[in-house]
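Page 37, top half.
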Amino acid sequence: MENLILIVLFSILALMVIPGFFFHWKFLKRLKEEHLDVWNELGQPSLFLNNSINWRVTKFLFGRKYLEVGDEFLTKMGDFMLVFYSVYYLIFIGFFSFIIISTRASH
């Protein structure tokens, strides 16, 4: 049963990676194309090449700063990504918590 739970949690995480990259890319693309000043303030982030400053984008997203931009598409995308990443992080934490708990319980 424990293995099944781990497989299910890992599968959900794995299946969420590609859509997560796509949503993140669309969000950054919109910022770059329509709100260049904000994109520059965030350090000109990209999905892979300049992702060392992703902490700024994470704070921008979770701080809901995208609402201040006044872009309806960015607002909808940001709200969706906020929920998407929150669910992803909760599953991620649950996955590793389950590993730790099941490892300790087996000893």
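Page 37, bottom half:
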Amino acid sequence: MTSIPPNALRLHPDVLRQCIRCGDCCRNYPCTLGFEAHGLHDGPCKALRRDASGRWECSIYADASEELKKSLAIRLGIGFGCLFRTA
């Protein structure tokens, strides 16, 4: 039997929350883009940083051209909501 990932149930629109840029996703589970850029490592994604306002951001996305940001946003799930917060 295939197991269901713990966050899979949070994909339901009634449960999915707006991103508040808390950084939990990248501190806990670096994405494949982070692995490709910085290699496999323990701990938070090395692309995670704070912006000038103190909110978390992905440096790979933030430093990309506007054209590249369109495809990165889809790949990173930007704009799709938070899978880590429950409230």
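Margin note: The two ends are 30 Å apart (CA to CA).
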